[in-house]
Each structure stands twice: as C-alpha cells, then as structure tokens.
## 1
Amino acid sequence: MSSSSTPSPGQDRYAASLRLSVAPMMDWTDTHCRMFHRILAPGARLYTEMVHANAVIHGDRQRLLGFDASEHPLALQLGGSDPALLAQAARIAADWGYDEVNLNCGCPSDRVQAGRFGACLMREPELVADCVAAMSAAVDIPVTVKCRLGVDEDKDYDQFRAFIDRVAAAGSGLFVVHARNAWLKGLSPKENREVPPLRYDWAYRLKAERPDLQVVLNGGIASVETAQAQFEHLDGVMLGRAAYHDPYVLHALEAAQTGSPLRPREELLQQLRPYVEARLAEGLALKHITRHLLGLFHGQPGGRGFRQVLSEGAHRPGADWSLVEQALQVTRDQAARVAA
C-alpha cells in the first residue's frame, strides 16, 4: 500500500471490503457480472477472471482489463510463474487502476498445470516467493495470493504453513485460502471444488498462529449463516459459485454485515437497467449480460419462469430490456399463482 499517512477514500473502501469478496471465476466474473454483483453488494471486493500475465502484456488490454469505475474495490487475478512477466503484468494492472493484484496458486486444471502455474505452485514455495517479491517491488498496490491447503495427498499442516510463511516474507500480507486440497490428476476442476474435503480448521489455525496476516476463507460457503460463523475466526469470506448461482445470498450477506435492509430482487435488478441499455446501445448482445442474472430468483416462486424467458430470448437479434421486464412479469404471475 501507499505510505501516505492519511488513507484515501479508495483505500478506505478497499480495506473495508476485506470482510466479503466474490471469487475470480473463469468464464463468469467478467465486467457485466461484476456490475451486477456490485449492485447486490456495494461494499464487497470483486475479482476478475484469472488472466495470464502474457495475455496482460501482449493481449487486447481493453477487452481483458477494462472495467467500470463503479466496480471498485476491484482486484485483478493473474496466472503465471515467471517473476519478471508477473511484475510487468502487475505494473500494467496498477496503471489501469486496479486496487489489488492476486496470484493464482489454486487452479487445478490440466491446462494451467501444463503452464506451470495455479495449484501446482503449492509445491514450489520458493518460486511463488520470487514471483510475489518481483510483483511487490513493481507496484504499490497490495499483492495477494489465492491458494489451496496443498495438492494431492498433502496432509501436513506444517508444510502448508511453511508455504504461507515463505510467501508472506516475500511481500504478501493477504491469503485467500480455498480450504481443501487440489487433486492434480483424476479430478476435473468441478470435482476439485467439491470432492476434496473442506478443512476450515487449517485456516483458523493459520490466523491464530499468524495474526498479522489477513486470512480470507473460500470454499463451501453458500449461506449467510455459514459465512457469518467464520468471522469469529477469520478476516473475511470469499463466495464463489454460490454468489453466481444464487446471487441474492451475496446481497443478504452484505445486508447482514452492514445492518442495511434487504432490498427486493426486482428492485435490485431494475438498478442494472441503465448499464444494460448503455451496453446495448454500444452493440453488445443482451445475452452477454443476462446469462449472469439467471440465478437471481433461485429457490423462489417464479424463478424457473424467469430463467426460461431470459435463456430462450436473450440470444435473439434485437433483444432488449423489454425481455427482462417480460421475465419479471412471468415471475410475478407464477408467484401469484403459488400464493393463491
């Protein structure tokens, strides 16, 4: 962080966002998704999809890195294992205005392993430390790490803590811990999010033994109650798939944290309308935004109708906000029939 003695409003917002964040999720947490999540949880810390350092350096930066100012506080998650390239990508991220750069040490996919980054880096703490040191030297925004407890058959807490200690000494003061192992062979990425058992106690123990570190818990958090139970032990929670498939949970959790009243789902969705219409006017197809909205009425009367209308209609040429209004009306009608 900057050495300024008086935090800026942006720094204050970033610090306050530690309690609640939304995980980086490939193919999901693009700028349209993040705009929706920002409405649901105005104070949450949002993360981009993982972007490889090479793509940041050589790719279409507007497409890969562009975001709306209202998305702050916002972190860019980087993939890679070359310290020099990661440092260069981190500088670009800082220049683009990101509040944090996060190194992925948790993704178990075959493609990621082939590139020698993601979860396999849990076996190379010295390399991760070199990466974090290079990134930290390049920028004055926080450099953080998202990791697992270990890989494959790792069951040694001391080995996990040694990884954290080595990387913390290199410059990372915040660790997002997906509290399960990653299996590098034999499980798909989806299975890696569900099959290896959760061990929250490792994250609790890490925070107790290293109180100066910020420890955020990720994995298996799908309800307000589960999330709230973690604050006794940890600095924050990160929601992943739950925030996508049942996004109202994100709103409910922030409301529980801030004491603000719960807002109706339809009211929250209407707040997105100006953004949607602005993007449509630029030529974006409605389907690129509405795919992130399908879970808003999850578990509610009329939720199936809402999803069906959007799924079937958003890909059609000329689809506009009136389709969202149609989906909401179907939802109201179905809910009224259930209530009757």
## 2
Amino acid sequence: MIAGVTNTDHYDKYLEFKVGSSLFAYPISKIKEIMEYPEVEPITGSPDYINGAMNLRGQLLPIFELSLCLGKETLSLGPKTCVVVTELEHNGQHYTVGNKVDLVTQVIDIDVSQLEPIPDLAGNLANPLLKGLAKLDTRLLTIIDVDQLLVSKQLSWLTKQQKETTERE
C-alpha cells in the first residue's frame, strides 16, 4: 500500500487517460477542466516538455507534453487529443498547468486498498511522477503524482514565466 494510506473502504475518483499507448490516472480532485486540444503558441526557449502556452480566460497556461515527462512515445495531435487543466501544489504554492493527453478514457473509482507502491527494482523504475499502481480486477493502472511535475527545473521555468507575465500586466 502507498505510504500514508490506511487500509479502509475509501474510494477516490481518478481520471484515466492514455499517453502514447499506456494508460495512466490521477485524482479528479486535481483537475479543473478537460478540453479539446487548443491553439497552442510555442514559447521560444522553453524546455522540450513544454508544448507552449494558451490563453485560458486571460491566464497564461503552459501546456506540458506529458509523454516526455513519463518517458513515453509522443503521438501527433489527433481528434481525441485533450488538455487536462490541472492545479498543482508545490511548497504551498498553487500552479495551474495543462497536460496534453492522447485520449481520456473514463472516470474510475479506486479503493485506497487497491493502491500499491511501484516496485523499486534497484532504482531502475525510479520516476518521481509515478505514485503507485492500482490493482484493478483485470489489470494494473499507473497512478501519477501530478504535483511532482514541478521538479526543480520545471518549477524555476514556470515561476519565471509567471513573474514575467505579472510584470507585463
């Protein structure tokens, strides 16, 4: 079981989606909205894992290429490509970002007793984005810790962009 999770009948809702050919999920509580993939303006000098930014009701919203963050294949945009607008927290600060996903499949209830940590295998599977595995009836589902998207490089880039946007206003 994932650290800090007690073994009781407690279900949480997760959004299941595809990135490349793999299925992942993260808690609905982190999601602000889901939208068709919008017009995204590339940002010169941004890291590879940032597709660009969009204007979401007056707010600059960076769009993360989730496939690169997860080490998965990057698919070209298709009719089912979406942006999952997500609120992240890092050191008490809240950030809103968009995550490009290739297909949203379903909302699923997962009991906390179904969650297990990722096997260590001598550090070979270490990825701070991976929170654990959900043992479902017929399959395993990888759970993402979206707050971990903001590791040091990503956080410093995002903070700099937000500061520059605020100064221009």
